[in-house]
Amino acid sequence: MDSAAGIVATMVDSSAPLLRAARQEPGPRVPVWFMRQAGRSLPEYRAVRGEGTILKAISDPDRATEITLQPVRRYGVDAAILFSDIVTPVWASGFGIDITPGIGPVCEHPFTGESDLKRLRPIDIDTDLDFQTETVRNLVNELGDVPLIGFAGAPFTLASYLVEGRPSKNYAKVKSLMTGNPKLWHELCDRLADMAIATLTAQVDAGASAIQLFDSWAGALRPEHYREYVLPHSTKVLAAMEPFGVPRIHFGVATGELLPQMADAGAEVLGVDWRTPLAAARERTGGRVALQGNLDPALLLAPWEVVEAEVRRVLDDNGGHPGHIFNLGHGVFPEVNPETLERVVELVHREGRAVASE
Ligand code: CP3
Fold first, then answer.
1. 355 has pLDDT over 60
2. Nearest to 174 by CA among 153, 195, 194, 188
3. Bridge partners of residue 105, in order along the sequence
């Protein structure tokens, strides 16, 4: 692991605005990128995506490389995010999961008991995820000074799909499993943590400059349950990535009540959604972490005057703190006009420069 971390360190351009902000160091501008920046709102994405499951496009290195680069070219964002999905490793290991267009991840046979653990074998990077390594290598060659963010799904959010069998509103099955059979729950999460570590390690080894752990649905839990059933597993993933020296971003939706605990999990950066003002998030986390966020993605559909005021409000909320990566509070909706995102990037770069040089 030490030698891998050494090699990676030489590949990272540590003065990139994203990496500086992650270290809470002043930089030339406020960096900005968007969750789901590659995707259906871009006509050039729809032109190359192809039919059927998105996993086909993800596992084709040429297509995945092109799709990852599209928003970087169009918007001039400060980071690329690998075009993949949180369920890719579970799918590649043969668990039996697919992504149904318009619905999301669906398992034909959800995880219901002990015997399903057998279906979750460890991932073999060279045979299961060779396409991912090739895509990351291609991207690092193409991106130059723009950092590539690698990512994985956190154990809780992945488990929610395996246990519920599809996107859920109330997480009843997963909450019932974690509280009713904690031993099995922890075994499941431990395997998912190992999978996340394997896939993140492969991405960083291939040249990713930062990683994001997506625990999108953790906000469904109350703090005591988060601490008992989720935190140890996310902590394990983030701790395993620490020796690589790349910034670690930890994100979830509706996590206002969980922010102090999420900050304990070990990442340098916490993603914050629009429900929690950045100033409040900074107070709740005691300045221990940089913050990423937090424009409400729904408001990107409002008139430009509203979007502009919201962007300024987010920057004001942050109050010129160097540890800020501008982003949305969640992913870009497919209906968003790409021109709006282009203007947001321009505005953040212009306004953020003024803040940075104050
Ligand atoms: O641009 C990027 O952000 C990189 C690509 C990316 C995708 N999924 C591609 C994708 C990333 C980072 C993800 C992560 C992901 N996948 C998360 C965490 C982020 C979040 O949104 O909370 C989650 C929860 C998933 C699971 C998942 N995959 C869902 C809920 C869906 C949406 C279903 C739908 O059709 O609305 C997907 C499908 C998916 N993954 C799409 C994309 C671009 C859209 C479907 C398509 O083009 O067919």
1. no
2. 188
3. 99
Ligand 1 centroid distance, CA of 85 (Å): 6
Residues in Cβ contact with 177 at an 8 Å cutoff, skipping those fewer than 6 apart:
163, 184, 185, 188
Helix, strand or coil, per DSSP, at residue 2: helix
Active site residue 49: yes
CA of 117 to the centre of ligand 1 (A): 25
29 is catalytic: no
Q: Which atom of ligand 1 is nearest to the CA of 49?
A: 47
What mean pLDDT, rounded, does the chain reach? Answer: 94
Residue 105 in contact with ligand 1 by CB distance below 6 A: yes
Question: Which amino acid, one-letter code, is at 133?
Answer: T
Q: Which residues pair with 248 in a beta bridge?
A: 211
Please give the pLDDT value at position 353. Answer: 64
Tokens describing residue 247: 């910034």
CA distance 59 to 88: 9
Using the atom order of ligand 1, give the atom closest to the CA of residue 253: 22
pLDDT in tens, 325-348: 999 999 999 999 999 999 999 999
Measured CA distances, 106 to 46, 110, 115, 160, 283 (Å): 22, 8, 19, 11, 38
Q: Do the beta carbons of residue 129 and residue 89 sit within 8 Å?
A: yes
Q: Would residue 343 show up in a list of annotated catalytic residues for this protein?
A: no
Number of C-beta neighbours around residue 94 at 10 A: 11
Residue 350 annotated as catalytic: no
CA 192/CA 188 separation, integer angstroms: 6
Phi, psi of 30 (to 5 degrees): -80, 120
Asked if 245 and 8 count as a contact pair (C-beta separation under 8 A), the reply is: yes
Ligand 1 centroid to residue 358 C-alpha, Å: 38
Q: Is the pLDDT of residue 40 over 90?
A: no
Report CA(17)–ligand 1 centroid distance (Å).
25
Instruction: Name the nearest CA neighbour of 300 among 276, 274, 263.
Output: 274
How open is the CA angle 97-100-103, to the nearest 5 degrees?
A: 115
Q: Look at the block and give the residue holding tokens 């709006």.
A: 340
Reported as a single tens digit per residue, the pLDDT across 119-173 is 999 999 999 999 999 999 999 999 999 999 999 999 999 999 999 999 999 999 9
Whole-number pLDDT of residue 11: 57
